[in-house]
Amino acid sequence: MIAPPYTDVKLVEFSDRLELCPVGWYRDRLGLGKYKADKVGFEPHEKMFAKWNEIMGSNEIWVVVHWMVFSDESDKVDHAIFCRPGTTLEDAKKVFEEMEKFLDSSEPDKETRPGLIKFYNHLRTVAPYGVWITHGDAGESEEETRYTSAIVHSYSDQKTTETRAVYQARLKVLAGMGPKTVALMHNAEEAKDDSERTKLEREAVQAFFAEVATYWTEEMLMAWQRNNPLGSKWLCEFGKVMEAPERRLDPVEHELALNWLHRGYNLMTENELSDAIFKTNGQRIKPNTLKKKRAKLGLPGRPFGPRPKSWW
Q1: pTM of the shown model
Q2: Which of 165, 198, 298, 205 is nearest to 10 (CA)?
Q3: Sequence-ordered alpha helix ranges (H) in 131-231
Q4: Which of 19, 81, 185, 231 sees the fewest Cβ atoms within 10 Å?
Q5: How far is residue 256's CA from residue 294's CA, in Å, rounded to a whole number?
Q6: Checking DSSP bridges between strand 138-139 and strand 131-135, what pairing results, if any?
């Protein structure tokens, strides 16, 4: 776990952890140009090299590039949109304009995976011959969309009773490391006023830092305090945590909450679940113990017991 000793940080909730991430200041830059496809595509050792050559060849293609210039003048390419051969300058300009609109928009989901996929699909309708899109460090093609960042969950994104229950179970597990942090994140999500939400989010950052005090090195603590000093409330909490036993997540509960639906644990009998957890975590947990953990976390699923004959 790394907490960057920067003034601007935010607390991000990933599917399997909470993490402090830097919020770097940057300027968006957008460009349009024409290049030989074999000069801007994939390298021979890369997975998509053959497919790229099959589609693009050595044709001249229009490319729209979005990159970020940071406060230290370093830069990073965020999106590269390669228009397929045959795309006219007029159509390439339309792609450029759509990218410009997207960057200027304030859509709440534009940095989430669903928001990006929605935008990418829209771009492919703007360019009549289609486009090939790369984002960050992950290659993306028409057939395969990959996204390097962990998916950030939102309280409001849970659409069904089952997914809401699993999400709440995940929060219960993460609260084992930072109960006050999770509570503040709940409050921030539910806040109606933007200034109140910002205040709660900043407090959640302090709470998280205090509640995982035993994980920081002395060097990191000193750097953090120079740039992000804690208030008296969280300094006291920091001291309490330092004196208390080190907090750790329950690995079995973490596995259940994280993969309850993904690995089909919700469909297993108690004995099948015990075997599955043993294969995954290397721990042999008694079925009755797993039943209690499931009840504690509030995880939904089929009743424990033999699989009904009509199950299939």
Answers
A1: 0.50
A2: 205
A3: 161-174, 179-190, 194-211, 218-227
A4: 231
A5: 8
A6: antiparallel
